[in-house]
């Protein structure tokens, strides 16, 4: 278990790395750029994803040689005690298209426990962060807030996307209809990490996701939980801890209880038509 001091030190490194790549990414945003396809036509990568991940990796190993680095683009490197989960650009399609909703996400875990996390939105200038001492937005403490009534809730989610439809078929559309009917509003902003960060800041009430990877959610989980929110990780319809290793999840703020969201997510997690494909290397 990491101490509060160690957690704070790891957060300082994560913050340094995120800020270092944030400015070059901001300058590259809305400039002409090419991209390549990864898994399919819905999953792209730019030279800026790869360059940012390499710069973050360099900073982390320079500061903490005893590290394991797990990045979306380059996979796993090292075998150290501090495990870093990094998404150099969460929301690459937004970034490449000129839509101002993307971020850098960096988290550190020790002995399976998340101890530091940063989500940096360079366009808005919002730096969400957490260590074992609490959650902050631009160094100001934050606590999530959620409407008690699910019918008044704003849900942020990327569900359903093309992969979800392939996984669960027409059930995706039935589940979507239930969520649309049960919540005041459902919005897809294109970045799962920012969904969690906005929830932690009290700007939304709930979120959910399917078929995610640790770099998508690790920083956001710590920020949300340290802000007083609830995050439930699911694997094949069963709760899983550590939650950042779970492919499916739902989350909400404060003392809220959203029965439709919970039921729908459990059902989708348990009934996928095809096996999940985790992309973590090693």
UniProtKB/TrEMBL annotation:
Family as reported in the entry's similarity comment: Belongs to the inositol monophosphatase superfamily.
Binding locations of Mg(2+) 1: 72, 87, 89, 216
Tree of life domain: Bacteria
UniProt binding sites for Mg(2+) 2: 90
A GO BP entry: signal transduction
Gene Ontology molecular function terms on file: inositol monophosphate 1-phosphatase activity; metal ion binding
Species annotation: Microvirga brassicacearum
SUPFAM superfamilies assigned: Carbohydrate phosphatase
InterPro entries (alphabetical): Inositol_monoP_metal-BS, Inositol_monophosphatase-like, Inositol_monophosphatase_CS
UniProt KW keywords: Hydrolase, Magnesium, Metal-binding
Protein name: Inositol monophosphatase
Cofactor(s) named in the record: Mg(2+)
